[in-house]
Design goal:
The chain is an alpha/beta fold. About 40% of the residues lie in helices and about 15% in strands. It has 2 domains: about 15-190 and about 370-390, Rossmann fold; about 205-370, Rossmann fold (3-Layer(aba) Sandwich), CATH 3.40.50. The chain has 14 helices and 13 strands.
Length: about 400
């Protein structure tokens, strides 16, 4: 839940258009909701454009936003291949004019484009002369350098880039170094549960492991299942709850996961719960959260959520995951794609349970403050006000703001 802010008379009746590439409720979608709250709670009139209806719609409306359904071209993984990229360019060019019409009709003071996967909104904002901010949640390092540069190239149309981590910023800048001058790091707002239930005093019965996230090869739920199998083979009593669903077109991956469970004779130890809007009952039931991403992550909302729930955490020791969880004492980093390392970490936490359980509760307060909604709201308004003030003065001032963080430890 967001914390209401008193209406600011200097923000009242300001019109802002926010765009989102989908209507689901995963990481970047939930951050967009915090953007809507930050704007509407302060009195701004917020319209959110998305390509289709879905679970996100109700949440946007609950937070004071108005919905527009505007079909748009979206960058998928296929765009990292030359043929897929050419199709994306074609779809974007044919879809830009509906976006232009929306902006001309709405006449927003600024457009906030959530994620880089729908670049046509940047083009439409530029065509209409509207200030535009791009909120970057991606840190794509796969694919050819040429295609990656082409995917990031539209970001030059933005007056300002908000990036969700230093890792994301470094990835963007390593692709196009001239984007450094217009990039600002704003860490995500991550709302926690209404109350925190302390970890179990003793680990009697099976150790309860939890995976929350997309069912995607990139996120590593298969590695979590393999780690559970290793634990069972070692004689460790454990079970795994999997909370999440697949992208459309990735149904084959969920089928493979279920087959892996059957092959490992883990049917009584693995539970698939599908997508859940409210993850906190699962976090409360869990003993240890696992974030086993197989690739670099721009940030790590699920890692932060584990800390907010007061649970020890095992993460792939890489990229934005380490940055998001850098200060957590109840966290163990492990190599990517290593079921054995995850199993070892589970046993370490089990053997030092009282220590990790105490640290997990201590982590909760610091994490709540670091990723608070109030801090995020102030940061978002700061960026918007700089961009609009610069436009009104006749020039765009691009100053990179980097919010200091301790170095990530493995």
């Amino acid at each position: 839940m967001t914390t209401p802010h008193p209406t600011n008379p200097h923000r009242r009746d300001r019109k802002i258009l926010v765009t989102n590439p989908g209507a689901e409720l995963y990481g970047a979608d939930r951050v967009m909701l915090e953007t809507v709250s930050a704007l509407s709670d302060a009195g701004a009139r917020v319209t959110v454009a998305m390509p289709e209806a879905g679970p996100l719609v109700e949440h946007v409306e609950d937070r004071g936003g108005r919905i527009l359904i505007v079909p748009t071209a979206i960058i998928r993984k296929s765009a990292l291949r030359p043929v897929g990229f050419l199709k994306l360019v074609k779809d974007a060019l044919t879809g830009v004019w509906p976006a232009v019409r929306v902006i001309r009709h709405e006449r927003p003071e600024v457009v906030v484009v959530n994620t880089i996967v729908s670049p046509l909104w940047l083009i439409a904002a530029k065509v209409t002369g509207t200030p535009v901010i791009s909120h970057v949640h991606e840190a794509e390092t796969s694919g050819s350098a040429v295609v990656r540069r082409a995917l990031v190239l539209p970001q030059f149309l933005a007056d300002q880039l908000i990036v969700n981590s230093e890792f994301s910023r470094n990835t963007v800048v390593s692709t196009w170094r001239h984007l450094a001058s217009r990039s600002v790091v704003v860490y995500n707002a991550v709302a926690g549960p209404s109350h925190v239930t302390p970890p179990r005093s003793t680990l009697s019965g099976p150790i309860r492991l939890l995976y929350v996230g997309r069912l995607s090869p990139r996120k590593g739920p298969d590695v979590a299942i393999d780690a559970l199998r290793v634990l069972i083979e070692r004689g460790v009593d454990a079970e795994l709850d999997i909370v999440g669903a697949v992208f459309k077109g990735y149904e084959w991956f969920e089928h493979d996961l279920r087959e892996k469970v059957i092959e490992g004779d883990l049917q009584t130890r693995v539970r698939f719960h599908g997508f859940q809007e409210d993850i906190w009952p699962f976090a409360e039931h869990a003993d240890i959260n696992i974030v086993p991403s197989a690739i670099d992550e721009a940030f790590g909302n699920t890692a932060v959520e584990a800390a907010l729930a007061g649970r020890p955490l095992i993460v792939s020791a890489t990229s934005g995951l380490l940055e998001a969880s850098a200060d957590l004492r109840a966290r163990i980093g492990v190599p990517r794609k290593s079921p054995i390392a995850i199993a070892d970490a589970v046993e370490t936490i089990r053997d030092r349970w009282q220590e990790f359980a105490t640290h997990a509760i201590d982590d909760t307060e610091a994490t709540t403050n670091r990723y608070s909604v109030d801090r995020y709201s102030q940061d978002i308004w700061g960026v918007i006000n700089r961009v609009t003030a610069s436009r009104h003065s006749g020039h765009v001032s691009r100053v990179a703001v980097r919010r200091g963080r301790p170095a990530a430890r493995p």
